[in-house]
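Quick one, T. Sequence first:
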Amino acid sequence: MQIRNIRYNQHGTINCEIEHPHFGWIPFTADPNDVEQHGRDIHAAALAAGPAPYEPPPEPEPDAGAPV
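Structure tokens:
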């Protein structure tokens, strides 16, 4: 199975994309405690690949036209 764009998320699980045989690249959140074995296998593969650290989204820019 191919995995790409591997990054930790704010919950400590791993967001990635997996190449599905019928649907192509799909998003997947890998969790070591997934109830399904394939989910745990994807988590192990993502962890072995070295996920990028979590980066919180940037703060929104203040709206210049909004009243203060």
